[in-house]
């Protein structure tokens, strides 16, 4: 009875994007990828297991950092090609999902160029500002 | 000064995944894709403009449905290959992001098979349950 795995529309590489959202705060922590086996393992273990495209193998989130994600809910979208996990980010308080030692991977916020008008007359100008603190030195996370 | 667009690591198709999150509730509404022009337009207009892979053109979210997403923040992740928008979902109250007439596209929740033990002994069994109501008949959204 693994029909539920067949319901997912895996892409040509056999992967789908997966959003991890902190259950308690609603913060979006990261996006990663899963293949069929990663999703099966996630459901079986109740912890996030992704597929690392760079390492080309299953990635038990927290296997090196200790920053395991406990999974409360697994959601699938209307097109069956994106997953959403509601998680508790374990291993540090507050939780650290990002390899940079930050709470969330989405720590760069687009900032319009100061003085720029809402650009109805040309391309928007701006830059990416880091807006979240490093909670733990990455060197102490990955020994 | 569009260096900020160059900072994004566009994939081989010139796209990146984009998560839309409701600013007020924290709900993850949908995931879509952007190319460089979609992101530039989103920043310039303050409303979500995606790239539709199926239609192979820019998709001004709400262009047919009226369900426009007003954009409050644009975030970029640590690897510069995923975007996160914080939005207000306009056009209906509560907001409808999904083409099925639901608030969020992530309305399918994985439900373990009843009676199944946490599967330490085999693959997890379960099914996808629809857990969010249809707020508006899609036929009345897309005339």
TrEMBL record, chains A, B:
GO terms for biological process: L-histidine biosynthetic process. It comes from the Bacteria. Its cofactor is Mg(2+); Zn(2+). One of its GO terms (molecular function) is phosphoribosyl-ATP diphosphatase activity. Pathway: Amino-acid biosynthesis; L-histidine biosynthesis; L-histidine from 5-phospho-alpha-D-ribose 1-diphosphate: step 3/9; Amino-acid biosynthesis; L-histidine biosynthesis; L-histidine from 5-phospho-alpha-D-ribose 1-diphosphate: step 2/9. It catalyses: 1-(5-phospho-beta-D-ribosyl)-ATP + H2O = 1-(5-phospho-beta-D-ribosyl)-5'-AMP + diphosphate + H(+); 1-(5-phospho-beta-D-ribosyl)-5'-AMP + H2O = 1-(5-phospho-beta-D-ribosyl)-5-[(5-phospho-beta-D-ribosylamino)methylideneamino]imidazole-4-carboxamide. InterPro entries: PRA-CH (IPR026660), PRib_AMP_CycHydrolase_dom (IPR002496), PRib_AMP_CycHydrolase_sf (IPR038019). This is Phosphoribosyl-AMP cyclohydrolase. The gene is hisI.
């Amino acid at each position: 009875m693994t029909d539920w795995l067949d319901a997912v529309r895996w892409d040509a590489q056999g992967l789908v994007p997966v959003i991890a959202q902190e259950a308690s705060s609603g913060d979006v922590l990261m996006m990663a990828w899963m293949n069929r086996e990663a999703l099966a393992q996630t459901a079986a273990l109740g912890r996030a297991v992704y597929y690392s495209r760079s390492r080309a193998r299953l990635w038990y989130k927290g296997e090196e950092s200790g920053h395991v994600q406990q999974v409360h809910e697994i959601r699938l979208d209307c097109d069956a090609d994106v997953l959403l996990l509601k998680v508790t980010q374990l291993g540090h308080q507050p939780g650290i999902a990002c390899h940079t030692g930050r709470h969330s991977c989405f720590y760069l916020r687009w900032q319009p160029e100061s003085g720029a008008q809402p650009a109805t007359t040309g391309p928007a100008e701006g830059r990416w500002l880091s807006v979240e603190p490093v909670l733990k030195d990455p060197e102490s996370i990955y020994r």
